[in-house]
Design a protein that fits this description.
The chain has about 375 residues and is of the alpha+beta class. Helices cover about 20% and strands about 30% of the residues. It folds into three domains: about 130 residues, 2-Layer Sandwich (Gyrase A, domain 2), CATH 3.30.1360; about 80 residues, Aminomethyltransferase beta-barrel domains (Alpha-Beta Plaits); about 90 residues, Elongation Factor Tu (Ef-tu), domain 3 (Beta Barrel), CATH 2.40.30. The structure holds (6S)-5,6,7,8-tetrahydrofolate.
Length: about 375
């Protein structure tokens, strides 16, 4: 069966260039085409970890919240305290529902005093933010603007971006950004990206300029070994960056997903910080979940045997005596560790590091051992 891309599934301003550069595999993310691979995964991994890679991540849509109550709404939507977020700074900010379940894990960017972008993972934050704004009577406009991220990741990313846009780009600190017009190409340039290698995201603000921007970077990048790539599953599992909706199920909370440190829950409401901790959707439920002791945990799994075939759907993970104790949610052969590594969402107490478990892959039952994240098997 062939998956058809119709009008409800959008292409990005970079899709044609990504295909021309060799992307042959794609997924749908935020109702948008996300190229995910060429026919040469080793070359992709090498470019990303030894030189630089260019990724069409236009599917990372922006939900723009603007207006007199924008800051108040963003603060209420996000479990991380964004009350002191300066203009020009981004923060990784998990969002929860009223039961503390993860709704999305966007980067929040403060564009100006009263304008914010939630640079979202794969769920309909536009609907969620509009509903919360409407129910709460917030004076805001919630839209999806004509903004499309293009990522440059890898150890030579700064060289590529400096050659294309100017030496000033080297001065950007991690998770800070600047508005920049390159001739008639408007963008926001941010030091960020979904890899452990470091890099930049160029948020193109005019979809008619996509091919111009791609070509500019492609040519500037050739002396530095820039190659085409995509969000890289082996590398992101090695470095552990959460894939919302892939690593998580609809019940997962931020602690379970391993991003509890980005939730501002310190300062109990009856403690001295009572007046200073921020109110957000799911706060009380998250406290109760932490107190319950029944939370699962996403942990690393090192799995015996040959390189496995790609994981098409979550897999049951078993105790040595064959009882289900959770699910394997991501899997890759790690070039860095020369091992099979996975992410598994496990029940207590099976997530304790060093626990021996079993998982069935490619028709064979394999031994697996839990480990802390990020992976450190050197
Ligand atoms: N960039 C942009 N939008 C995005 C992503 C992105 N939307 C979807 C998805 N990725 C959102 N998820 C993440 C997950 C992790 C990080 C960024 C977005 C990340 N985390 C670092 C970490 O965990 O070490 C740093 C977090 C911090 O220090 O605040 O970078 O990649 N535009």
């Amino acid at each position: 069966m062939e998956l058809i891309v119709g009008p409800r599934t959008r292409v990005t301003p970079f899709t044609d260039r990504a295909v021309a550069a060799g992307m042959t595999k794609a997924m749908v993310y935020n109702h948008t085409v996300l190229p995910i691979g060429t026919d040469d995964p080793s070359a992709e991994y090498r470019a990303l970890t030894q030189a630089a890679a260019i990724w069409d991540v236009g599917c990372e849509r922006q939900v723009q919240i603007t207006g007199a109550d924008a800051h108040r709404l963003v603060t209420y939507l996000c479990a991380r305290d964004l009350r002191d977020l300066p203009v020009g700074v981004a923060r990784y900010a998990p969002m929860c529902d009223h039961d503390g379940r993860l709704v999305n894990d966007p980067m929040a960017l403060r564009i100006d005093e009263t304008t914010f972008w939630l640079s979202i993972a794969d769920s309909d934050v536009l609907l969620w933010a509009r509903a919360v704004a409407g129910e709460g009577g917030y004076d805001v406009e919630v839209t999806e603007p004509d903004v499309w991220p293009l990522a440059i990741q890898g150890p030579r990313a700064a060289d590529v971006v400096a050659a294309a846009l100017g030496e000033w780009a080297r001065e950007l600190r991690f998770f800070s950004f600047a508005r920049h017009d390159h001739g008639d190409i408007p963008m926001v340039v941010c030091r960020s990206g979904w890899s452990g290698q470091g890099g930049f995201e160029l948020f193109l603000m005019d979809s008619t300029k996509g091919e111009q921007l791609w070509d500019l970077l492609w040519e500037a990048g050739q002396p530095f070994g820039l190659g085409v790539g995509a969000p890289n599953n082996p590398e992101r599992i090695e470095s552990f960056l959460l894939s919302f909706g892939g690593d998580t199920d609809p019940e997962t909370d931020p602690d379970e997903a391993g991003i509890g440190r980005f939730v501002s829950l310190s300062g109990d409401d009856d403690g001295p910080e009572a007046s200073t901790s921020h109110d957000f959707i799911g706060k009380a439920a998250l406290r109760a979940r932490r107190a319950s002791g029944s939370q699962r945990r996403l942990v690393g799994l090192v799995i015996d045997g040959d390189a496995p075939s790609p994981l098409r759907s979550p897999r049951s993970v078993q105790s040595p005596d064959g009882h289900p104790v959770g699910t394997l949610r991501a899997l890759a052969r790690s070039p860095r560790f020369d091992a099979n590594i996975g992410l598994a969402l496990l029940d207590p107490p099976w997530f304790e590091p060093g626990t021996e478990l079993r998982v069935s892959l490619d028709g064979a039952n394999r031994a697996a051992t839990t480990t802390t994240l990020p992976f450190n098997l050197d």
